[in-house]
Amino acid sequence: MAKQSAATPEDIALRSLRYTKEQFEDVLGQTEVYIRKNPGQSLLYAFVAGYVLNRLPLGRLVSGLLRLSVSALRPAIIAYGATKLYQAVQEE
């Protein structure tokens, strides 16, 4: 009897999603327990994180990454088009 030892990609994706959800819920639960035990320290951490995020130039970082990705996308499109053209010529 030949059994399929390899799972389908859908099964793997569903198991991965379920595992990730469980891990996220575990981390969320641990965070909640820590906050309940140390409310003052947690509030201080939240304040410091908010202050740091407020001071970061996030708008500039995002726009810079967007410009970089657009400038890198143009040569990638040209290379993709060239390979497709080469494949079409080889088929004829």
Q: What does the radius of gyration come to?
A: 25 Å
N to C succession of SSEs: HHH
The fraction of residues in strands falls at under 5%
Instruction: Tell me the number of structural domains.
Output: 2
DSSP summary, beta strand count: 0
The oligomeric state of the chains shown is single chain
SSE inventory with pairings:
Layout: H1 9-37, H2 39-55, H3 58-91
Overall description:
This protein has 92 residues and is mostly helical. The chain folds into 2 domains: 8-56; 58-92. The chain contains 3 helices and no strands.
Tags for this model:
mainly alpha, 2 domains, 92 residues, 3 helices
What's this entry about, in short?
The chain has 2 domains: 8-56; 58-92. Helix content is 87%, strand content 0%.
